[in-house]
# Entry
Amino acid sequence: MDDRFDLHSHSVYSDGSHTVDELVEEARAAGLAGIAVTDHDSLAQLEAVRARAKELGYPIAAGTEVSSACAATGRKVHILGFGLTATADGSGPLERMVAPTLKARTANTLWQAWVLQRLISSADDPTGALEAAGVADAGEADPAFSLDAVFEVSHASTGMYKQHIMEALTHRAYRDPLYQPIYRSIFKGSGVCVSDISYPEATDVVRAIREQGGIPVLAHPGQMDSWSIIPDLVQAGLQGIEVYHPDHDEAAERRAREAAEVHGLIMTGGSDYHGRYGGPAGLGVRSISAAEVGDVLIDLFA
# Structure
């Protein structure tokens, strides 16, 4: 086992397909020294992840990835939070901030699933009904699709996600050639299930992570073009930036390293692995060495 860490992955506690046990199995096979499990907009799973890591005898830093936005640019911004502890009653500053996001996302996803169920169950020709609604490759949709099927897929998650709908509807992995055309036709553009929710301001998220004792790290700035907000995030208390990510090319990595140097930020990196629900083929597709990430984050594994 080498000294490389994958500091960005998702489990069944949010929109990943793998349990913690399965993530550990893959991490060990990939020769990683440790991983971070950073499920979306929730702290409720942190102790369960840490407890399982201890039982399995494998280093896991349990964190979260917070969905936020920048009002000035209109862009979404994702912030990773490490070293956090959930409160008994969910009253922590970050918990109070992410709870409405998780609730709104789940409600929105339920509505999207209901729209698809209504199309499929109310038509004599479900495939024809989906085609008329603009759904690509409608013949691939499971005629038994239902809200119950989505609940079954998402039963371990702290919320409900579009990935759960796609699994129940198509039973295809994200990397399947038919997945993206179907997904885009449903959830993008003029798709029948197009709907979004609001997110907290990114600088407020950074402050809340710090107030709850965590380490805030800007996730994949190259993917979301969130470069311009870095100075404001640093002023709010940002402590790190994700340098290595599957959607970062060499130019983005260089830009992130430069931002880390200019602002005195910790560097992180990871695969943003979602199992069959995401693009990277496995843990360790992107990783970072212990020397690069430094003691602040490595200490979390202790």
Observations:
- The two ends are 17 Å apart (CA to CA).
- The chain is about 40% helix and 15% strand.
